Automatic annotation (TrEMBL):
Keywords: Membrane, Transmembrane, Transmembrane helix. Gene3D superfamilies: MFS general substrate transporter like domains (1.20.1250.20). The keyword Membrane applies. It comes from Oryza nivara (Indian wild rice). InterPro entries: MFS_trans_sf, POT_fam, PTR2_symporter_CS. Coiled coil: none annotated. One of its GO terms (cellular component) is membrane. Belongs to the major facilitator superfamily. Proton-dependent oligopeptide transporter (POT/PTR) (TC 2.A.17) family. The chain crosses the membrane at residues 49-66, 78-99, 105-124, 184-203, 209-231, 322-347, 367-384, 404-423, 443-466, 478-496, 524-543. This is Major facilitator superfamily (MFS) profile domain-containing protein. GO terms for molecular function: transmembrane transporter activity.
Length: 577
């Protein structure tokens, strides 16, 4: 059954074996098979909170301190967000193939720290303040925040995948815990967001960016110490070289044997015996069958022709199919990334020009309006994990209440509604006799809807790209998830440029983006995003309904994915043989 039709996604438990030991390919800190009771699980997976004070305040800082125009500031924020969320592709590749996830977290955190320290210096040193030397201050500021981007490139994919590695997919209880892990990981991130957009932003507004950077650097250093303190209790994955090489070998082998005929029986395709290796084997599928030729055994003069670039296993072929099948899903989620980019740019800018007074003595900082999106996400994730998913599990009888792709689709739908609501609110603000007197709490619905949408779509994307990639490239999988947001931010910048050029007739007239919000037509831009979202949702549904999930075979048994329902009897028979 296709991706959107399934009711569950978990793998059935594999019976047998000594449950005291973890039987996947992980090791403990001494390189031995991990003892289940002493390593992994939640004790090792709950890590530091993430701080979004820098990201949410960046738009305000660029426009007020560096005096950039709104459209240029929005593009700079989007470029920085793009780099921050695309760098994890590099970090994930290094973590999976060469450095290992633990080492990548360590080194990237040190780079992250250096960026925060440089940011503090650029704010606290009298000679580097913007009123003394704006150009030098601007240069150091951008170097600092891009060092944070580079650090994030290794930190985000390696830390999240390292946390998920603490759960054994072959153990029923830990497999269910891993499903909740992604939910509560994001709750922890949202708790960090709340601290970042309240406490940190308040420090930026009332004390200064330097003080806020010092606090962030201190907390980051403390979190690194906590992370290192648990090193004896972690489960580690040993890097095995480039995770992309086996995929390229499959493509080369299939191309070399393109003139061969595929056997009628899939049992004749080459695969190693399950008892000879520790890694999980995948079942054969009928998708992208031309790649199956890589697993066809050639005979030359009665002898088999082998070699890494001439013969691949069924598992390697299926892993290549999985990666190729992700491309349409990745493309179909890009408009969601474009929509998500508006929260930290135009949503925040809207809040800055509205009435933010909360009583006679307190004014809400503009970036703190982002807290409403974080609250929406926390509520959505908590309700889903504790109420909706258990109910759907009982209803369907599966381990997973809602298939991953269904969950992503629901989140995309929420963000489309959020754009429509945002357009309506902005239109009302523009038509108001006094736009500045309109309460900032009119933005609550659009922030909450975006937060709820993130609670479905973002968590679903994280789990999808972690779970459906080959086991050897799971950090890179998290990097692929983050690249959706990064590419979405980049496309948002390009869309702003294109819309501005078209609506202003090349600068000859007033377009949708003026020098400030009151001279702009942000409401029309939001409606454009909503229309793009609706068209894309139709495309996403078509792609998702044709998707087949990963199906694993372990110990001669088919560990079937109920959300995919892929027939795998031939692979099971081969393993049994």
């Amino acid at each position: 059954m296709e991706g959107l039709r399934g009711g569950g996604h978990g793998e059935a438990a594999v019976d047998g074996g000594d449950e005291r030991w973890v039987e996947d390919s992980s090791v403990d800190y001494q390189g031995r098979p991990p003892l289940r009771a002493a390593t992994g699980s939640w004790k090792a997976a709950i890590e530091r909170l993430s701080y979004f004070g820098l990201a949410t305040s960046l738009m305000i800082y660029l426009t007020k301190v560096l005096q950039e125009e709104m459209k240029f500031a929005a593009k700079n924020v989007n470029y920085w967000t793009s780099v921050t969320t695309l760098m994890p592709l590099v970090g994930g590749f290094l973590a999976d193939g060469y450095l290992g996830r633990f080492s990548t977290v360590l080194f990237s955190t040190l780079i992250y720290l250096s960026g925060l320290i440089l940011l503090a210096i650029s704010q606290l040193s009298p000679r580097l303040k913007p009123e003394r030397n704006l150009h030098l201050h601007e240069t150091l500021f951008f170097v600092a925040i891009y060092l944070v981007s580079v650090g994030t490139g290794g930190h985000k994919p390696a830390l999240e995948s390292f946390g998920a590695d603490q759960f054994d997919d072959g153990h029923a209880a830990e497999r269910v815990q891993k499903m909740s892990y992604f939910n509560w990981w994001n709750c922890a991130l949202c708790a960090g967001v709340l601290l970042g957009v309240t406490v940190i932003v308040y420090l930026q507004e009332k004390v200064g960016w330097g003080a806020a950077a010092v606090v962030l650097a201190t907390v980051m250093a403390a979190s690194l110490a906590v992370f290192l303190a648990g090193w004896r209790h972690y489960r580690y994955r040993v890097p095995e070289g480039s995770p992309l090489t086996p995929l390229v070998r499959v493509l080369v082998a299939a191309a070399r044997k393109r003139h061969l005929h595929l056997p009628a029986d899939a049992n004749e395709l080459y695969e190693v015996k399950p008892q000879n290796i520790k890694r999980r084997l995948l079942c054969h599928t009928d998708q992208l069958r031309f790649l199956d030729k890589a697993a066809v055994v050639e005979h030359d003069g009665g002898e088999e022709r082998r070699g890494a670039w001439r013969l691949a296993t069924v598992t390697q072929v299926e892993e290549t199919k999985l990666v190729l099948a992700m491309v349409p899903i990745w493309v179909a989620t890009l408009p969601f990334g474009i929509t998500a980019a508006q929260v930290s740019t135009f949503f925040i800018k809207q809040g800055s020009v509205m009435d933010r007074r909360m009583g006679p003595h307190f004014t809400l900082p503009p970036a703190s309006t982002f807290a409403m999106a974080a609250i929406g996400m926390i509520v959505a994730v908590a309700v889903y994990d504790k109420v909706l998913e258990p109910y759907l599990r009982r209803l369907t009888g599966g381990e997973r209440g809602l298939s991953i792709l269904k969950r992503i689709g629901v989140g995309i739908a929420f963000t489309i509604v959020a754009m429509a609501v945002a357009a309506t609110v902005e239109r009302r603000r523009l038509r108001s006799a006094s736009p500045a007197s309109m309460s900032v709490f009119w933005l609550v619905p659009q922030f909450l809807l975006m937060g709820i949408g993130d609670g479905f779509a973002l968590v679903g994307l994280q789990e999808y790209f972690y779970d459906q990639v080959p086991d050897s490239m799971r950090s890179l999988g998290i990097g692929l998830y983050l690249s959706v947001i990064g590419a979405g931010s980049f496309l948002s910048s390009q869309l702003i440029t294109a819309v501005d050029r078209v609506t202003s007739h090349g600068g000859a007239a007033a377009g949708w983006f003026g020098k400030d919000l009151n001279s702009s037509r942000l409401d029309l831009f939001y409606w454009l995003l909503a229309c793009i979202g609706v068209a894309n949702l139709v495309f996403y549904i078509v792609v998702a309904t044709r998707y087949s999930y990963k199906t694993v075979m372990a110990g001669g048994k088919v560990v079937d994915d109920k959300a995919g329902d892929i027939e795998c009897a031939a692979a099971a028979a081969a393993a049994a043989y």
